[in-house]
Amino acid sequence: MRYYFDTSTLFIRGTFRAASTGIYGGIRSVTTLINHTVSAGRSHEDPRKELEFVAAGAGISHDFFGLLTTVPVQQCCVLQYDSVTAFITAGIPREPPVNAGSINIIVCINEGLEDSALLETIMVATEAKAEALMDMGLPLTGTPADAIIAGCEGSVKHRHAGRLTDTGRRVRETVLRGIPQAIRCHDAPERPAHSSFLIFSRFQGDHWVEWSPYDCPYFPCHFAGQRCDFCYCPFYPCGDEILGEWTESSHGGRVWNCARCTLLHEPEIADYLKKFPGASLTELKSLSNVKKEIQ
């Protein structure tokens, strides 16, 4: 999996088996998951054509699932908990009608699930969304415009994903954490300059950590003059054993360890990826090799 943003769209690329409650929903294999922002004044237009236009503009055929939202994608909250990565946009007006707004959730799991488990993932995420809203004191369990996509990659490893399974527990806790964060981003007086990135850490006790490019106590963690625009790597876990390796985690599973990878911290590579957000990892590695040969 890898993801990137353009002006008004979140693209998540990979080889997914996915289930969607959104436009062109259902269960099938797709290469792309999309969350696209439309203006409130255009919400009455044909949503299918809107998504087809967005996909065609990005060179994507019909093998995608897509969601529409009036929330700017820059307010997306990205959360990672082991094998689970969630992308959440949420906007809830505080004035009547309180059932307006929209909440979009995309859950990506880097372990294979059976189709029934994908549907369970949607159930768990929906339940967690309602629980989070009630915990915030909001008089609703969702909005009429809400939609969810659950996608997985890899050979089937899990037959079930209910809230009592490890996968379901991670999905639930990720959504419980992400909904309030996404709503806070939407309600902020000024639009955030970048998405919120949160990761579940076990270092010095289980807790959520929000990554920020400002005043990092570990800077520079790799080398003098490094760039940290992509400290929260959009390719994670890339699975490229030249850049990192799978290691045993304290919770008994495996996690991708990329502590020694400096690719996206190279200033030229960071600048290139900001200019061409759809660039592939192979392309970036090639550019890095060319730079080294010139030097």
Describe this structure as you would to a colleague.
It is globular, with a radius of gyration of 19 Å. It has 2 domains: 2-211, L-amino peptidase D-ALA esterase/amidase; 216-295, no CATH class. The chain has 295 residues and is an alpha/beta fold. The longest helix has 22 residues, at 166-187. The strands form 3 sheets. Strands 1, 2, 3, 4, 5, 6, 7, 9, 11 and 12 form a 10-stranded mixed sheet that branches. The model has no long low-confidence stretch (mean pLDDT 89). It has helices spanning 47-57, 115-135, 166-187, 267-275, 281-294; strands at 2-5, 9-20, 26-37, 64-69, 77-81, 84-91, 102-109, 112-113, 147-152, 156-158, 196-201, 207-211, 245-248, 254-257.
Largest sheet: 10 strands, mixed
Overall pLDDT metric: 89
* Number of separate structural domains: 2
The 3D shape can be described as globular
Detail the poorly predicted runs.
none
Radius of gyration using CA atoms only: 19 Å
Helix content: 25-40%
Strand count: 14
CATH topological fold name of the largest domain: L-amino peptidase D-ALA esterase/amidase
Please report the number of helical segments. Answer: 5
Give the SSE order as H and E letters. EEEHEEEEEHEEHEEEEHH
Strand content is 25-35%
